[in-house]
Design a protein that fits this description.
Elements (H helix, E strand, L loop, with lengths): L7 H15 L2 H12 L7 E4 L9 H16 L3 E6 L9 H14 L7 E3 L4 H13 L3 E4 L3 H7 L17 H13 L8 E4 L14 E5 L13 E3 L1 H11 L4 E5 L6 H11 L5 E5 L2 E3 L6 H9 L14 H7 L3 H11 L6 E3 L1 H15 L2 E2 L1 E2 L2 E6 L8 E6 L9 E6 L2 E5 L19 E4 L4 E9 L6 E9 L15 E2 L1 E3 L4 E8 L23 E9 L11 E4 L3 E5 L9 E6 L5 H10 L1
Parallel strand pairs: 1-2, 2-3, 8-9, 10-11, 12-25, 14-20, 18-21, 23-27
Antiparallel strand pairs: 4-5, 5-6, 6-7, 13-24, 14-17, 15-16, 17-22, 18-19, 19-20, 23-24, 25-26, 26-27
Helix pairs in contact: 3-12, 8-9, 12-13
Bound molecules: adenosine-5'-triphosphate (ATP) and magnesium ion.
């Protein structure tokens, strides 16, 4: 102690240490590898989607993780399409995946790869394994292979074709490639150990015969590598250092290690992490496809879907999704994240960035009886109180206004601080008004109009005057732009859809509410598709592609309700 009079170096070290301790386990592995020089100081990751569906928020976690680690350690991240299954894959998905990764803010440079680019190399390596006595052609059917495999408690049985000679195997494998045999009649299998406690090591299939067109290789191939055979070798070919995947591949790792060791090629380190699960939604590609095909939603980008393109249409920002990935972190154990955490990340981002505007979703007309008929005032409104640099705008004010029906009650409880007969309220950026008279539809009794008076001495910005408890939003009738607004709730009614019955029965029939009779302030005319606003008191809204210049359509991205504090409280209580 005595010989370190200056505490600063230690403080710096402590900070560095604290930072390292906070680093998640994958970062720690990479740091250790960098220190030991395991891969010559390189960090090279990849994001490997199968182009058989649209990417969802779970994929976003993996994208942020892989691209983020490469960025952090000055490395590279590839985009690789794992397109080994010709039947389910399509070019449409490839393009959508590219768009989504780019939109999230990541760049793979010229490193866009396809497992199908490696089909020839994989084939040559398969012959190598045959020559080494490590693979054989098997004539068992898919069902027989399953039967022979055994179970977790029983060892498997060896295939009667397991001990074919190298020559016979090579000949048969070449004829498989040449197209001599029908689909499903033969496979190439790794010759490992039918008694292994790990089922993945019980002579797994490497190739199957499939006379099918591939979206990239056409009819060049009629044998296709399995995912297990293609995946690790694709990583190796690309010089990947850290092959990050989800936990379900943990017990495939010994198989991938076995392949790479037998081939004697570059050996990436596979690291598994827990996949993201979210409450009130489903994430499996199969279910997402069913939602689309069975018409439960309007398409892959229906704003209720957990797909990236749907989140984008809903109004999510790439920044909010990246912040979400950061906030939930990376863990070794599966868990489910409350969907409110995702919503809160969007709220926090839009609160800083979205310009404010006024819109009325359920309009009720008020007439200011003491306001001159032909008068229009341009009132100053603040675009974003969080960010003065966003400036101000003018909002027209006139004798007839739309207000929110729910901001008026004819017979209110005492604590209702909005409009009621004889009561006063402030109109945002405008005046204090008093409700003098309520007009009803003579047949239905429904309130059709309020007759109010305004107090000219109370214009906002004037030296301060008397105060009222409530402030409500409004739009001038003569200037209002008519709009459609789509309000969303969770796609499912329960946190864990399908846990107790068929997942379709858990669909929320009220997940979408379309309001066609809304009014928004005129500054929103011609708003760009994708533009995001906070409608004061109502939430954040995003301009939908269905909009026209004179009739915008808005999706509510998220409400203003701040539930994050509640979640945090719950979490600290656990
Ligand atoms: P399937 O196996 O049904 O095709 P998948 O969700 O595994 O679906 P892939 O295209 O193989 O889809 O996934 C690409 C990458 O995204 C993989 O590395 C996978 O581990 C990762 N990934 C997929 N779903 C999640 C999730 N929910 N959370 C985190 N990562 C995920
Ligand atoms: Mg997969």
């Amino acid at each position: 102690m005595a010989d370190s009079p200056d505490p600063a170096p230690n403080a710096d070290k402590d900070k560095e240490k604290a930072k390292e301790a906070r680093a998640h386990f994958i970062e720690q592995i990479i740091r250790a590898d960098l220190e030991s020089g395991k891969y010559g100081g390189r960090v090279h990751t990849r994001f490997p989607p199968e182009p058989n569906g649209y990417l969802h928020i779970g994929h976003a976690k993996s994208i942020c993780l892989n691209f983020g680690l490469a960025e952090k350690f000055g490395g590279l991240c590839n985009l690789r399409f794992d397109d080994t299954n010709p039947v389910k894959e399509e070019q449409e998905y490839v393009e959508a995946i590219r768009d989504d990764v780019r939109w999230l803010g990541f760049d793979w440079g010229d490193r866009e790869f396809y497992a199908s680019d490696y089909f020839e190399q994989l084939y040559q390596w398969a012959e190598k394994l045959i020559r080494q006595g490590d693979a054989y052609v098997c004539d068992l059917s898919a069902e027989e292979i399953r039967e022979y495999r055994g179970t977790l408690t029983e060892p498997g049985r060896e295939s009667p074709y397991r001990n074919r000679s190298v020559e016979e195997n090579l000949d048969l494998f070449r004829r498989m490639r040449a197209g001599e045999f029908p689909d499903g009649s033969r496979t190439l299998r790794a010759k490992i150990d039918m008694a292994s406690p790990n089922l993945n090591l019980r002579d797994p299939v490497m190739y199957r015969i499939l006379h099918a067109e591939h979206h990239r290789t056409g009819d060049q191939w009629c044998i296709y590598p399995t995912y297990d055979w293609a995946h690790g070798q694709s990583d190796s070919i690309e010089g990947i250092t850290h092959s990050i995947c989800t936990l379900e591949f943990e017990n495939h790792r010994p198989l991938y290690d076995w392949f790479l060791d037998r081939l004697g090629v570059h050996h990436p380190q596979q690291i598994e992490f827990a996949r993201l699960n979210l409450t009130y939604t489903v994430m499996s590609k199969r279910r997402l496809l069913e939602l689309v095909q069975e018409g439960h939603v309007r398409g892959w980008d229906d704003p209720r879907m957990p797909t990236i393109c749907a989140l984008r249409r809903r109004g999510y920002t790439p920044e909010s999704i990246r912040a979400f990935a950061e906030r939930i972190g990376v863990a070794k154990f599966n868990s489910t994240i409350d969907i409110q955490v995702l919503e809160q990340c969007l709220r926090e981002d839009l609160n800083r960035r979205a310009p404010r505007a006024m819109g009325v979703l359920d309009p009720l007309k008020i007439v200011l009886t003491n306001y001159p008929e032909d008068r229009v005032e341009e009132l100053e409104a603040i675009n974003n109180p969080e960010d003065p640099s966003m400036g101000k705008r003018l909002v027209p004010f006139s004798r007839e206004l739309w207000i929110e029906r729910s901001d008026f009650m004819e017979d209110p409880p005492r604590k209702f601080f909005r409009l009621a007969p004889g009561r006063e309220v402030r109109l945002r950026y405008a005046y204090i008004i008093r409700c003098d008279e309520v007009v009803h539809d003579p047949k239905t009794g429904v309130v059709t109009e309020l007759r109010c008076s305004y107090d000219p001495q109370t214009r906002s910005g004037m030296p301060q005057q008397r105060k009222v408890k409530g402030t409500i939003h409004w739009v001038s009738c003569a200037h209002a732009l008519s709009a459609e607004v789509r309000l969303y709730d969770h796609l499912f009614r329960v946190p864990d859809p399908g846990a107790e019955r068929d997942w379709r029965e858990d669909l929320n029939p009220q997940s979408e509410e379309v309001r066609t009779n809304c009014f928004v302030e005129p500054s929103l005319r011609g708003a760009d598709v994708g533009a995001r606003y906070q409608f004061e008191r109502l939430g954040y809204f995003c301009v939908d592609p269905d909009s026209t210049a004179d009739h915008p359509v808005f999706n509510r991205s998220v409400t203003l309700r701040d539930t994050w504090a509640k979640i945090q409280k719950k979490e600290t209580r656990k």
